[in-house]
Amino acid sequence: MHKTFLLLGAINIFFCIALGAFGAHGLKNILSNDMLSIFHTGLQYHIYHAQGLLFIGLLLLHYAKSRLIELSGWLMLLGIVLFSLTLYVMSLTELRILGMITPFGGASFMIAWIVLAVALWKAK
Length: 124
Fold this sequence. Notes:
single chain, mainly alpha, 83% helix
């Protein structure tokens, strides 16, 4: 499973870099400052948790049988989709109703880190 999270982390970091460039160069003159700020918030949390996925992959090299560490990684990926992706779409479409989904992504991120802490606390 470690390879899956390493791959997911690498792919997500690629998307972060591409989206960052798109935001800085392609959206700078198109979006309002408010929408650009929303886009960048999604990007900021995306990069943190893409790195988190890499971290999960590395941890699974050492704790290969930890279901909690795996769960933490899946929760991070879910958070990327529910938090960052909704912010990207909201900033591009100005559909502010998508903001109702975003807190579920934030909760997923927080739960992921707590689950990881518990997993490491319990690890042998």
